Amino acid sequence: MQFVEFTSGAHTLRGMLHLPQGRRPFPAVMLCHGFSGHRIEAHFLFVTIARRLARAGVAALRFDFAGSGESDGEFADMTVSREVDDAAAALEFLRRHPAVSPDRIGVAGLSLGGAVAALLAGRRGADLRAVALISAVAEPARILSFIRTGKFEVQLAQRDYIDWDGLMVRRAFLQDLERLTPAEAIAAWPGPLLVVHGSEDATIPPSEAYTYRQRRADADTPTRFEIVRGADHTYNSLEHTERLCELLEGFFREKL
Q: Would the pTM count as exceeding 0.85?
């Protein structure tokens, strides 16, 4: 495991690169964390996934988006479009790394990071071999409908930001989110896709996973679809974490 730094625009992003044992170059997967998350994620989920992939012969890069974790920048300046820029920078870092095979790179995204992964596939699809969406946001308008109700609506009427559990979320984030269509982006991408969602996800409903599946069905592109029974948004049990790791390991070993 190596601490790494790379740049995205004016920011230095920081992360950890997990490299397998054996002969280089390796296939690689970049992990995109969720809204207000970081490269470790809840109950060390991204650490567990990265270690599992590395043992299976697949390098894994988990990094902090600008304004999150230990990367440069302020969270208040974060937008999803900027996170897509960060993900593109991470992709370029992997493509240039001497231990990584540049034509065998995949991406996995959790929650809003799943939307980032889908949008990255729409932008840089030729440089990606496989995509996995975990508890991913498909239609951002549903998030916006929640934010624009109750106390958040009152806050936005008075100022340019909302207080999200002690984090400043600016109106620019909401305006950017409103124009993004991750489900359409991934539907247009012709490569293999894994969609995983917990049946008991109370944060991002499983209907978002079905949206991804339907859009891909309309586009006639290869998709594996898995609902993990009993799992919540971040797979907070040993059983559900193990099932998620099994799915990701099998998918990326096969497709990369």
A: yes
